[in-house]
Design a protein that fits this description.
There is one protein chain. This protein is an all-alpha fold. The protein has 21 helices and no strands.
Length: about 500
């Protein structure tokens, strides 16, 4: 069946979504518990922040291994191993007795979580083929875009009504269900043990990505590039990645096959994914910050106010996936970028009293734009690839998406801090949490909202830049691929 999504493909999609929901939610769900964790463990904020940073660094370290590991062990085995490791790490985190043990267990959790999403995308891409990739990728995209919205809401509710430990324990039953369903539904593809790991490439790329992501995260956290540690981390990361690129272009079997970029569709899809990651995920940080810093809302309320964006994305994704498969991703992504730019205009004129209904409507439209851009752009990258190239191509796309998101978040955080400092000398991202005299509150919130508005102008510009690679995306229906089924071994 090439037209619709048959029962087998929907079953595979449900397995991947179960795994993706856990790992994507976990990147945001912990953030609302940082203050609580600092109090319970009598830890400084700079130390307990490693609960979030350590998880992110583990993801950056393990993602480059995904393509090789999928070929070496098979996608079914790797998916189940990754889910199990993530679930075990989650259970350990829930039993942590100190900040040190929690940070260590978060690394374990991240090593498993880093592979779940890319391996799931490989399984779906190989099962769907080029003619159905748009609809299938829209299935994966729902948890990717809902994570930043649902995570703070669920995290806030669990911390307030139960305990911070349940933000980790909640992954265990979901993980067990995902393992059982994966065992029953996924076909066991034959491993290729002759594929050797590119140790030099791994030694360059994984530390390079970790240093780069760490530097970007610290930049976003501090709102500046002023620290020698941050500059050193970014510089060292960039140098290691540049050395990896030089190595990969010469190596016979590199960790990441950069020769894939010779395909125009793949190069355009990958570039669009990178720039979109920066524009979209950077803006996803700004909106809840505005609600908290300027409007004084708590994390739970800010998360709920983001819900219209998730609803818009969920409604748009299935339709965008169908159109992508019928007409090609180029037109869909270009229209989606236009919708994103229109929906961002309201945020460029923010005030301290902008009606919530206007912001909710703009977020809903923005969600529609999100649903029409990220996953169709990713699906474009797969259209001209053969089955054997999918594992390493997926690894590259996930790296670009994660680094793009971290870079966009860091850039917009620095711009926001500069705007706040310009408007309120000595001010910071946390100034809205500081008690102010009633007479001064109106003036300060007005200046803060202006800082957010100016930063959203840059978000609008960054979104517009996405048009450049998107112009080169395919605008025709994908060619039918000869039916291929993986060689099956006993599971």
């Amino acid at each position: 069946m090439t037209g619709g999504l048959d029962r087998r493909l929907l079953s595979i999609g449900s397995v991947v979504v179960l795994g993706a929901i856990m790992t994507i939610l976990d990147t945001t769900i912990v953030n609302v518990a940082i203050d609580t964790l600092a109090r319970d463990f009598h830890s400084s904020l700079s130390t307990i922040q490693w609960v979030a940073t350590g998880y992110m660094l583990a993801l950056a370290t393990v993602i480059p291994l995904t393509g090789w590991a999928a070929e070496r062990f098979g996608t079914k085995r790797l998916f189940m191993m990754s889910v199990f490791l993530f679930m075990a790490g989650s259970a350990l985190c829930g039993t942590a007795w100190s900040d040190t043990s929690l940070i260590a267990f978060r690394f374990v959790q991240g090593f498993g979580g880093g592979m779940v999403m890319p391996v799931g995308m490989m399984i779906l891409a190989q099962a769907a083929g080029p003619q159905r990739i748009g609809r299938v990728m829209s299935v994966v995209g729902v948890p990717m875009l809902l994570g930043p919205v649902v995570g703070p809401v669920l995290g806030g509710w669990l911390v307030d009504s139960a305990s911070w430990r349940w933000i980790f324990f909640v992954n265990v039953p979901v993980g067990i269900v995902a393992l059982v369903v994966a065992w029953r539904v996924l076909e066991a593809d034959r491993p290729q043990p002759h594929h050797r790991l590119d140790w030099l490439g791994f030694g360059l790329l994984s530390p390079g990505l970790s240093l780069l992501v760490y530097g970007l995260a610290e930049t976003a956290s501090h709102g500046s590039l002023g620290s020698t540690r941050i500059v050193g981390s970014l510089t060292a990361g960039a140098v290691l990645i540049a050395l990896f690129v030089a190595h990969a272009l010469r190596a016979e079997a590199p960790l990441i096959d950069l020769r894939l970029f010779r395909s125009r569709a793949y190069a355009a899809g990958a570039a669009t994914t990178f720039v979109l990651g920066g524009a979209l995920f950077g803006a996803m940080i700004l909106v809840p910050l505005y609600y908290q810093v300027v409007r004084g809302e708590n994390a739970l309320t800010a998360g709920l106010l983001m819900a219209p964006q998730g609803i818009g994305a969920a409604l748009a994704m299935p339709l965008a996936g169908r159109i992508t498969d019928r007409r090609g991703p180029g037109k869909v992504v270009l229209m989606g970028i236009g919708v994103l730019m229109i929906s961002t205009v309201a945020f460029t004129v923010l005030s301290a009293h902008t009606p919530y209904w206007l912001l909710a409507g703009s977020l809903f439209v923005r969600g529609i734009g999100l649903g029409m851009t990220m996953m169709p752009a990713m699906s474009a990258a797969y259209q001209t690839l053969d089955r054997a190239a999918v594992p390493r191509a997926t690894t590259t796309l996930n790296i670009l998406n994660r680094v793009g998101g971290a870079a966009g978040t860091a850039v917009l955080a620095v711009l926001l801090q500069q705007q706040i400092t310009s408007a309120l000398p000595g001010g910071s991202l946390r100034i809205g949490r500081t008690a102010l005299p009633a007479a001064a509150h109106e003036h300060v919130t007005s200046l803060l909202s202006g800082a957010f508005a100016h930063t959203f102008v840059w978000t609008l510009v960054l979104t517009g830049v996405t048009l450049i690679p998107a112009i080169f995306l395919p605008r025709i229906q994908p060619a039918a691929a000869a039916p291929q089924r993986p060689a099956v071994e006993s599971a």
